Amino acid sequence: MFSSNNCATKWTAQIVPVCLCLCSITVHPNLLSWKKFNGKKKDHKKRHASAFRVVWFFFIMAEHLSRSELDYPFKLLEYFNGFRVSKVIFSACEQGVFDLLLQSQKSLSAAEVAQELGTSVDGMERLLDVLVGVEVLEVELTDGTAYYNNTDVANLYLAKNSPKSLYNMIIYQSQTIYPLWNNLGDAVREGRNQNEKTFGLSSEDIFSAIYRSEDEMLKFMGLMNSSWVIDGPDIATAFDLSRFKSIVDVGGCSGALAREMAKVYPASTLTVLDLLKVTQMAQKHFCQSDDTIRFQAGDFFNEDLPTADLYILARIIHDWKEENSLMLLKKIHTACNSGGGVLVVEAMLFENHRGPIMAQLFSLNMLVQTEGKEHPPSHYTHMLTTAGFTNVQERRRLLLCAVKLVW
Ligand SMILES: C[S@@+](CC[C@H](N)C(=O)[O-])C[C@H]1O[C@@H](n2cnc3c(N)ncnc32)[C@H](O)[C@@H]1O
């Protein structure tokens, strides 16, 4: 939804001139044979008439698409429909469309997909067509029947068992985040999370709400795990961390980021510290046969932290009120070996309030679900120096940002 920046400008500046150029080539008989362009030979008169229709069409398009957002609100309309696109992808994932198309090894018609997944043919055809429209599926027409196939992107990121699958992220967005965001208006009005209104749970203890059942805990851990599959390598290499021989990932959840770190820094020991029930779940569902990371149960607010050279705080500070985050940073400063540091990984806001849009959306998400928020780098620097750290360095990596402090 957010990639097609200023569609009108793009069309006028780049695509329209190319189209007009192509049209003038087709009008000029010596430059391109009509047969090549149209598939069958036509006489000169018809050929020029058709060419003029093409030119006329592109003039209309150019006129239409070059209007500014004030004349026609392309972007706004796209945004209004954003939730529909999300829902289409959520629904297709939940119904197993991408898995079926991956497994079938051939294109399938809407009727075949509907039959396999137990849906209506009409409903499935419309769903599949939108997925073609948003370019996650491909379609071919054979004898009037549409046959659908996954794009490479769908195979890689949307099918459940792909090594880079974002399936768990989608399920969590669909089943937990989406209902919470139904109460966004109340969250903004009240300035607090909506766990109580959405799920009937106390809004005070955020992780009791997030881990309200084993199933929910598994879904949340799946979500956390998914993001490191795509962002982990970038974060692990944002700084050269090789001099830190003992690393503790504080609130490390499924261990996905620690695993990425262990690949880049095989000479360092990687420990994932998290609540007992989380470490148990991680070992049961997320451990890999070649794991070199270890898990340690502990409560980072109420128990001592293990000593280490480097502590990772990935998506932790954004969960909590400022005083809690500061308490945790001070504890880390006390437990840290001499010369050690902390790596803070968060979706950093720009200082000027102008983005990035995903970090701004995450910050609203923190409002509806937690007691924290996203911050710009200066705020993290302030917190870290208040906790006693010096020598703050910052690297921006995609959406997530790493700030390293050496003590
Ligand atoms: C938003 S998640 C981030 C997980 C992980 N760092 C990541 O980026 O994928 C917050 C993590 O903090 C853990 N956590 C929350 N409260 C905790 C506590 N008091 N002690 C230890 N871990 C805690 C949660 O279980 C969860 O794994």
Structural description of this entry:
The chain is α/β, with parallel strands linked by helices and 407 residues long. The chain is built from 19 helices and 10 strands. The protein has helices at residues 7-27, 34-38, 44-66, 74-80, 82-95, 97-104, 110-117, 121-133, 152-158, 167-181, 184-190, 195-199, 206-210, 214-236, 256-264, 276-285, 322-335, 357-369, 377-386, and strands at residues 108-109, 137-142, 145-150, 246-250, 269-274, 294-297, 308-314, 336-346, 390-397, 400-406. It has a 7-stranded mixed beta sheet, sandwiched between helices. Strand 4, helix 15 and strand 5 (269-274) form a beta-alpha-beta unit. Helix 1 (7-27) runs antiparallel to helix 3 and helix 14 packs parallel to helix 15. The protein is globular and about 75 Å long. It starts with 6 loop residues before the first helix and ends with a strand. Residues 1-54 have low confidence and may be disordered. It binds S-adenosylmethionine (SAM). Residues 207, 224, 251-253, 257, 274-275, 278, 299-301, 314-316, 319 line the site of S-adenosylmethionine. S-adenosylmethionine binds next to loops. Homodimer. Catalyzes the transfer of a methyl group onto N-acetylserotonin, producing melatonin (N-acetyl-5-methoxytryptamine).
